[in-house]
Amino acid sequence: MSTDIRGNALTCTADAARRLDGAIARFHAYLADPVADLDALLVEHPDCVMAHAMRAAILATTTDRTFAAEAATSLAAAEALAPRANAREQAHIAAVRHWVDGDLSRATESWGGIAIDHPHDLLAVQFGQLGDFFLGQSHMLRDRVARVLPAWRRGMPGYGYLLGMHAFGLEESGDYARAEAAGREAIAIDPRDGWAAHAVAHVMEMQGRAEEGATFLHATAPGWAPDSLFAYHNWWHLALFCIERGDIAGALALFDERISAGGFGQALEAIDGAALLWRLWVLGHDVGDRWSRLLPGCTARIDHGVYAFNDVHAMMAFAATGDREAQQAVIATLERAATGQGTNAMMSRDVGLPLARGFAAFGQGDYRGAVACILPVRGIASRFGGSHAQRDILSWTLCEAAVRAGDAAMAEAMVAERLAMKEGSPVAQGWALRAKALARPIAA
């Protein structure tokens, strides 16, 4: 028996516990490569049950079926060792099992339960927050972290990462001032904390502080960018700030040099790539052949059907490139998922299918059809996960679709929403001018 750096009991040797701490620290900071660290640990300590459970959880929560076989192998190894594990470790194994079986809600609550019983188990807190993110549970992103904060104090190993997680939850709950303060404090503790930097970037995105947001990300990048598995997402946020500032060349350069650096080999990277290009393409900007870099990954996953959020972003790539066959394949995947079991069935049925149809309609020039599909779902879109900034693509698309459809009333309504949220946004002001140019029909 040993303990980790925060005093949580482990059924492994002291050397395995020390090396596990190293892998966990990398995971908290999203630095490369915790899975490689776990692999090396398991070569020498194949009976370290927590290493198997953590490896399975990391791979499973990628929401990418490409890693499903590896996740299942690690989970099977953990389950085989479960009889000799302690109760906390067994609970981690059970949480991963729920996730792999498709019950994301139960898995997330299981990790949350571990954190309640063991408030210094920062790994349980982090997996719980990831679950809340994929489920779109904005307030739980905040509250699940708040539950354990009283048990922590500044100076404890990992305290800064806890603050960074709380900052993101506060931002998604609309408490922007506290979110920014917590995020900046976390960065001061560890400049490598890309999640905390991302939380502050979210605050500035939601408040329309594009110039300040760009300055902030440039200033903090020397800390969070090197050796990061998460940097592509912070560069994506910088690209959004570029678009708001009218710097289209800068946004495209970030796509070329930063966001696509990983080659879109993972689903989460492809989501950011598609979301950026769609925003630009919808506004009428020439993105060149950049969609072609996303298509192989989207096509390879076209029948996976494990997370509707991914499928909808794949639809953006296929709609923008006019690939009708691929669009129908995405719809078929979502229809199949919608009739199945588990969390993704609900996501696909309630949100994924109508949104995919709406993006397909937009790509085909049916702008009224796009509005008809997207508008009724936007209010419940949190059901299929993501952040407010990511789901903002729905409002973005609605504004442009309403203007292109020539529907003056709808365009004015959509743009009014946008300006209420981001009064100084040049993009929103552009939509406002175009909406005003539409002639309203004279009432009888």
TrEMBL record:
Domain of life: Bacteria
Record-linked InterPro entries: TPR-like_helical_dom_sf, TTC38
Alphabetized UniProt keyword annotations: Repeat, TPR repeat
Family: Belongs to the TTC38 family.
Alphabetical list of PANTHER family matching this protein: TETRATRICOPEPTIDE REPEAT PROTEIN 38
Entry protein name: Tetratricopeptide repeat protein 38
